């Protein structure tokens, strides 16, 4: 969760922070300047995984963006291996109303 001052500055600069989670810890990955760049980053992130078993995508309040992301991922992952859902209210409180999430399960 980021502080109010950092969130305010991010909104002024139109920054869409992308964070990762590993071993229960969050860390910054990228700070694209607009929604299109953020979407490109997420698609390229998935493309960077060599053996994909499945992909989960989630949205907080932006089902249209989730649909766009799913359409763009069809070239990378078969549609039947793309799972969609909504973030939980607890997660939504921390990430905000326009959040998108991507999780990739690598094949063994």
Task: Explain the overall architecture.
GO terms for molecular function: lipid binding. Helix content is 38%, strand content 29%. The chain has 108 residues and is α+β, with helices and mostly antiparallel strands. The protein has one domain: Hypothetical Protein Tm841, Chain: A,domain 3. The chain has a three-stranded mixed β-sheet with strand order 4-3-5, covered by helices on one side. It has a two-stranded antiparallel sheet with strand order 1-2. Strand 3, helix 3 and strand 4 form a beta-alpha-beta unit.
Counted up, domains total 1
The succession of helices and strands, N to C, reads HEEHEHEHE
Trace the largest sheet across and list its strands.
Answer: 4-3-5
User: SS-based structural class?
Assistant: alpha+beta
Q: How many β-strand runs? A: 5
Helices and strands, with pairings:
Blueprint: H1 4-13, E1 18-22, E2 25-30, H2 35-47, E3 52-59, H3 63-73, E4 82-86, H4 89-95, E5 100-106
Summed up:
With 108 residues, the protein is an alpha+beta fold. It has helices at residues 4-13, 35-47, 63-73, 89-95; strands at residues 18-22, 25-30, 52-59, 82-86, 100-106.
List keywords for this structure.
Hypothetical Protein Tm841, Chain: A,domain 3, 38% helix, 29% strand, 4 helices, 5 strands, two-stranded antiparallel ribbon, globular, 108 residues
């Amino acid at each position: 969760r980021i502080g109010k001052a950092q969130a305010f500055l991010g909104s002024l600069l139109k920054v869409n922070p992308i964070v990762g989670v590993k071993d229960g810890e969050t860390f910054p990955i990228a700070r694209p300047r607009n929604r299109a760049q953020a979407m490109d980053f997420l698609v390229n992130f998935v493309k960077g995984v060599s053996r994909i078993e499945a992909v989960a995508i989630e949205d907080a309040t932006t089902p249209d963006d989730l649909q766009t992301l799913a359409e763009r991922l069809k070239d990378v992952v078969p549609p039947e291996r793309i799972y969609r859902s909504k973030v939980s209210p607890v997660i939504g409180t921390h990430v905000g109303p326009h959040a998108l999430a991507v999780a990739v399960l690598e094949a063994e």
